[in-house]
Specification:
This is (S)-2-haloacid dehalogenase. The chain is α/β, with parallel strands linked by helices. The chain is built from ten helices and six strands; from the N terminus they run βαααααβαβααβαββα.
């Protein structure tokens, strides 16, 4: 196979280490595990708002979900908690293997893009802080594409229109199966990274590639396109 799909990367947790937020949640709630509860609720309410045709910035929603989770835990957030959360998200560290793996994929002839629910401002701050922005041909935020969050079909269609490519020519790289499900349902290929706390769902559309990290996925993709069909 010599056709190289354009690789569209999710950002939060796929390229950047979300567990960097754990100390903040430990300080606010007395447990770092509340991070996972907050993130799950953030994804849930992002999808609920999209289904009901409401739109707001992902960062604003994240802060509101933080307040909601605090209320369910009987906690009063200190002044500045929302600011601390937004600042920490904008400076999430890159996973150690990511820079070299991106460089390898780019050198192998793949076109690299990002697609995130984050605002464009936060997205560019994240990629600059992680020093990986130069690997990507373009970086897409849902707030520039559609009044919806992933995994709404309109988001993936908007990327196709921006790139002038059919869904079959695109491959989403993500560690969240709900994102993979959305992309695969739109006709894209899918590649899933098994970051800690994430696993494939055994029903619905499945990713064509599964790897423990981006270095392993790069091996798979480079080998796959080099294999004659």
């Amino acid at each position: 196979m010599d056709h190289k799909p354009a690789l569209i990367f999710d950002v939060n947790e796929t390229l950047l280490d979300l567990d960097h937020l754990a100390p903040l949640f430990n300080r606010l709630f007395g447990s770092p595990h509340v991070l996972r509860e907050w993130f799950a609720q953030l994804v849930l309410y992002a999808q609920s708002l999209t289904l009901n045709h409401h739109s707001l910035p992902f960062g604003v929603l994240g802060c509101e979900v933080l307040k909601m989770v605090a209320a369910t835990h009987g906690k009063t957030l200190p002044a500045g908690a929302s600011y601390d959360l937004q600042r920490a998200i904008a400076t999430l560290p890159v996973w150690p293997e990511v820079p070299q793996a991106l460089a390898r994929l780019k050198a192998a002839g793949f076109s690299l893009y990002t697609l995130t629910n984050n605002s464009a401002e936060v997205l560019h701050a994240q990629l600059d802080a992680a020093a990986i922005a130069h690997h990507f041909t373009a970086c897409f935020s849902v707030d520039e594409l559609a009044a919806a969050f992933k995994p709404a079909p309109v988001v993936y269609r908007a990327v196709e229109q921006r790139l002038g490519l059919a869904g079959s020519a695109l491959c989403l790289v993500a560690c969240h199966h709900w994102d993979i499900l959305g992309a695969r349902s739109a006709g894209w290929q899918g590649a899933m990274l098994l970051r800690a706390g994430n696993a494939p769902l055994g029903v619905g559309p499945q990713p064509q590639f599964v790897a423990h990290d981006l270095a392993q996925l790069a091996d798979q993709l480079i080998s796959h396109v080099a294999t004659p069909t």
